[in-house]
Design a protein that fits this description.
single chain; mainly alpha; flat
């Protein structure tokens, strides 16, 4: 998990405008049980790409759990 988190953070440091990277970071945080950081990352992914259905579905799941 930690390696995946570092990879996602590194990808975001290279290109912070890619919705997919925010989505991956949100999903990793979700799997770690860190719902608030997951929510923030997934919201950013949805803001950057409103058509990103995977991010929107995972965000709905986070909202449900919160």
């Amino acid at each position: 998990m930690e390696l995946a988190l570092k990879d996602a953070e590194r990808a975001l440091s290279i290109d912070s405008t890619a919705s997919y990277y925010h989505q991956v970071l949100g999903e990793v945080n979700f799997l770690k049980g860190e719902l608030r950081p997951a929510r923030l990352s997934l919201e950013r992914a949805a803001d950057l790409d409103p058509e990103n259905t995977e991010a929107l579905l995972k965000l709905a799941e986070v909202y449900f759990l919160l």
